[in-house]
Amino acid sequence: MKEELQKRIVKGPGGVDIEVEPLRDYYCEAPPTVMPAAYSKIVEDLFNWARSESIWILGFGTGCGAIEMRPLMTPRFDAYRYGIQWRPTPRQANLFVISGYLSVKTLKRAIRSYEQMQNPKYVVGLGSCTINGGMYWDSYNTIKRLDDYLPVDLYITGCMPRPEALLQGFMDLKKLIRAGNAEGANQYAENFKWYKDNQKKVIKDWDMPDYSW
Amino acid sequence: MQALYDKLKQHYALGELSEQRADLCFFTVPREHLSSLLLYLRDVEGYTHLVLLTAVDWIEQNQFQLTYLVNNRLSANDIGIRVLIDRDVASMESIHHLWPTAATYQRELKEMFGIDFPGSPRIDEDFILEGWQDLPPYRRDFDTLKYSEQTYRDRPGRVTHDPASHMKQQLYPDAED
Amino acid sequence: MAFEWIQIPYALLTLFIVVNYGFILNALIAKIGARVGRRHGIPIWQNYLDLIKNYSIRSSITHGVMFYLGPVFRLSGGVGLLLFVPTIYSSVMFSNLSFAGDLILALYFVFFGTLGMALGAGESGHPFAAIGVSRGLAQVTASELPFALAVFSVALQYQTLSVTDIVAAQQGSYLNWTLFTNPIAVAAAMLSFLGAMMRPPFDVVLAPQEIPIGPPTEYHSSYLALMQTNRAIFPIAKMVVYMNLFFGGAISWPIFFLKIFLIYMVSVLVGVVFPRFHVEHSIRWFLVWAVPLGIIAIMVV
To answer: What's the pTM value of the predicted model, to 2 decimals?
Structure first.
């Protein structure tokens, strides 16, 4: 564990000793819970419709596939006209695109970013690397199946998929959301232990709390 | 290049010169001479830029080969200096006092090949791999496929095709070989 | 004007119209910006969808009391600014809660939201939020300075602190507008306007394309929705002040919509042409170009 995460005693103003335990103090440890949908079906349908038409992608490119997302902002593809935009902070984003291969080091950051996003949240695996390892199938450092570690709603195949394929994938995701089938966040909460076990199996230096939001 | 090599040869026990291109050549040097040779090249001959420091695992000879590539900006040519060290006691003198950037390369080599550079700054910190517990992964006796199979779960149904025969089958299914 | 209870539903009606106009105008402006970049841009109803989406987020986390109050302050800054300035001149329904000294109150409300935001974002504990707030406060302060000077100049010119009286003095012909009777003050105020609208080139503080998005880094779900609502109200409210002080006010809703749109377009036209300023550059720009104009405006009057 890194030094700044160790438990330590800090001298406060006025000579008071303050005990700091970063893992407890800086994070909220409460595990995620299953969040029920709205009471009435009409309201939930309205919400799902709004969610599907307002997809905010977390601006976190995890692998080479991130380069395929940039053209979507340009005049040629212009994803904004479908209500898709990029947000720089996980708090505001509701879609996490795992763009291509995911090394173990990045996986750790991806998990933390994912956990900071708010329910409902969606994960799209982009490229064959997220499906079965792709061309990194024998690498010592990249995971093979993304759905072992995060609940994935949709995969977009290809190495790399073209921006058109991404747009098509987002359209399919919209259908999933509108039908109310994209409940990845609740799935994550339900199978929390299984996901954590899988994550801890590959992340050897686990120096964060189990749930870091 | 040849002239410089001949000049250096008078003072250092250089190996054979191999000129790859007109502006790129390699030679071997014993590890004791490396530091003074690099200092001489940097300060007198104008090879001021350390392009890279990398390693090759010659597992058959039980040796690591370290390659120090230095560049002369003015005459626009590179010299690669090779040092062979023992694979079992993989340890080498640090050159971070000549180029501070070398410390980063040395950290990487420590992590990926397990070559130690005593005295180099932050040499024991994790560089890319976090919490790596196995053999250093760039060593050739590390079986990356086996490690990957043990650590990461496969998705069933993955098929590998030989590109040549697969495309032949796709495009010309009737052709006799 | 004496207070009457009927003013409250009237004011709420104004608020309703302005919120919707703000949402559509913001989307329209985004579309115009996108067209300049040869994109189609967001759908015109996108802001409503984003709003519903943000309200429908199921989980939300808090960092403390101020974290709740930040967006509330921000929104009350926008709403307050709108409600204490007459929206439509000579209309009993849409004069809102304006009173004799409302100009000073308006100046205060312009700043109020940013200060509330600073408290909220500070509580969120995120370093980007702290950076964003300090940048934002620095820039807003610098850009408010010429505006305040211009307002003093106008107040001196008309010898009143009541927005209604200032509008009344500008009626008759467009040549009576402050734009023509006191052009230097208007110039200073319009330069300040560029900075206050949070559009390029002065939007480095909270542009979503910047990696540190600024004060709202930690804000999400309903908090963010509240702030989005404010993003619809506040620019309009701000432009209402401008319209009343410098451009003769509005005597009916169509004229209101047209004038607000045109005033907004000033900052849009500048924004699509010029790239973003750093905060330190923009502060220097305001101090060098806008503040002297404001001082001259006061001296001339």
So the answer is: 0.87
Which residue range is the domain that position C223 belongs to? 7-300
> Roughly what angle, to the nearest 10 degrees, separates helices A104-116 and A192-202?
150
The reply to whether residue B132 touches residue A144, judged by beta carbons under 8 angstroms, is no
| Domain-embedded: residue C1 | no
Neighbouring subunits of C (3+ Cβ pairs under 8 A): A
Cβ pair B130:A140 closer than 8 A: no
Please give chain A's pLDDT, 213 residues, in tens: 667 777 888 887 777 888 777 777 767 777 888 888 878 899 999 999 999 999 999 988 888 888 888 889 888 999 999 999 888 888 889 999 998 889 999 999 999 899 989 888 999 999 899 998 888 888 998 999 999 999 999 999 988 899 999 999 999 999 999 998 888 999 999 999 999 999 999 998 887 878 876
Beta-carbon separation of B130 and A104 below 8 A: yes
Q: How far apart are CA C290 and CA C187, in angstroms?
A: 8
Contact across the interface for A138 and B145, Cβ inside 8 Å: yes
Provide the domain count of chain C.
Answer: 1
Asked if C54 and C223 count as a contact pair (C-beta separation under 8 A), the reply is no
Distance CA(A70)–CA(A66), nearest Å, equals 7
In chain A, what are the domain boundaries?
A: 55-201
A55-201 CATH, one of 3.20.20.140, 3.40.50.12280, 3.40.50.720, 3.40.50.170 = 3.40.50.12280
Query: Among A45, A91, A117, A122, which would you mutate to test the C interface (most chain C Cβ atoms within 10 Å of its Cβ)?
Result: A91
Q: In chain B, what are the domains?
A: 2-171 (3.30.460.80)
